[in-house]
Amino acid sequence: MLIRTPQGWACRPSEITPEGVYLSRRQFLGAGAAGLLAAGVPALAEETALYDAPPAAEAPAWFAEKHPGIRWAAVVPEGEPVTPFAAATRYNNFYEFGQDKGDPARHAGALVTEPWTVRIDGEVGKPGVYELAELVRPHALEERIYRLRCVEAWSMVIPWLGFSLGELLKRAEPTGNARYVAFTTVMQPEAMPALRSRLSLIDWPYREGLRIDEAMHPLTILAVGMYGRVLPNQNGAPLRLVVPWKYGFKSIKSIVAIHLTEQQPYTTWQALAPREYGFYANVNPEVDHPRWSQKRERRLPGTLLRSNLRDTLPFNGYAEAVAPLYAGMDLRRFY
Ligand SMILES: Nc1nc2c(c(=O)[nH]1)N[C@H]1C(S)=C(S)[C@@H](COP(=O)(O)O)O[C@H]1N2
Ligand SMILES: [Mo]
Fold it and tell me: What DSSP state is assigned to residue 202?
């Protein structure tokens, strides 16, 4: 983002998931998850093994309870292996913990994620403050394998565990004035070095927003896990947004407040550099960032010899599902 152009992603051989892991994953999807579950495949162990991801040390009870109920709704993006867990959890943007891609993995262990409450208010009939387990309980957790495309021109493929944001918003009963949804990240200065720094350019807390129809869209989820386990702190524990057709910065982490509003909300990156980061931030290879092209992306992890460049797709490959939301809009103006 602001900060500097990304360096080559150096990857140790041990971080590359063996091909067999991808194969078994594909076979698993091919066989049909329902059948396998019915056949009594031990859900947690199997799913975790498929991704080469370590089980969460201390998954909260509510998560463990929900986990066996997962519907394997995902489709692996064609020909695209899931990113190794090690890459997805050691190369992160979470500026509260620092600007280096390794800072979140280094420092986010200090984040306190239990207890956790989320406030839902503004233009809703039923505002409230929910304890996390209470917030998630009515929803079926689902796996979604989505591309994540960062505005810095790298991307990953991540298996999220989450539920529909739209379903949650419906429970709060949006009023006729609810035109946008604003999200806010937690502030824990004890754990987050950038919140204690006088040099930080960001006006904390980190904030993001969506138009109400984007928020209600079935592709938009709130994630509580990834790779068959609870979210690692550096990826936005315990609750983060995932909007797969938008640049990664829209997918706000560690959410504590959801506010429905009539006015387009303040968002962190738009406030910092409005010419570079728009409110919409739809992935668009035709609209360059003022300082670099958005036509291509590096699929992580690459190696020094193999940078893994590929074409960026309009709406990150989800155009069929979401382009109608923007019919008639000038996407160069509303970038
Ligand atoms: N609170 C908060 N959320 C955030 C960020 C951040 O700095 N703070 N970075 C964003 C950016 S720029 C990206 S690309 C994604 C990265 O998500 P990941 O680390 O899980 O891959 O998180 C987004 N959510
Ligand atoms: Mo990003």
Answer: S
Mutation probe of ligand 1 site: the residue of 4, 94, 99 with most atoms within 8 A of C-beta: 94
CA–centroid distance, 270 to ligand 1, in Å, is: 15
CA–CA distance, 57 with 248 (Å, rounded to integer): 27
- Quick check: 319 and 244 in contact, CB under 8 A? no
pLDDT in tens, 31-86: 333 333 333 333 334 444 456 788 787 888 888 888 766 666 555 567 788 899 99
Contact 93, 107 (CB under 8 A): no
Distance, CA 1 to ligand 2 centroid (Å)?
6
CB count, 10 Å around CB of 324? 9
Q: Which two tokens stand for residue 183?
A: 């999200």
What CATH architecture is 60-326?
A: Alpha-Beta Complex (3.90)
What are the residue ranges spanned by the domains of the chain? 60-326
Q: CB of 249 closer than 6 A to ligand 1?
A: yes
Q: Kindly state if the Cβ of 92 falls inside 6 Å of ligand 1.
A: yes
Residue 116, ligand 1, Cβ within 6 A: no
Q: Is the pLDDT of residue 170 over 80?
A: yes
Q: Which string of b and e fits 13-33 if b means at least 16 CB within 10 Å?
A: eeeebeeebbeebeebbeeeb
CB-CB neighbours of 91 under 10 Å: 22
Q: Which two tokens stand for residue 278?
A: 């728009």
Span from the CA of 286 to the centroid of ligand 2 (angstroms): 18
What is the atom index within ligand 1 of the atom nearest the CA of 158? 21
Q: 218: how many CB neighbours lie within 10 A of its CB?
A: 11
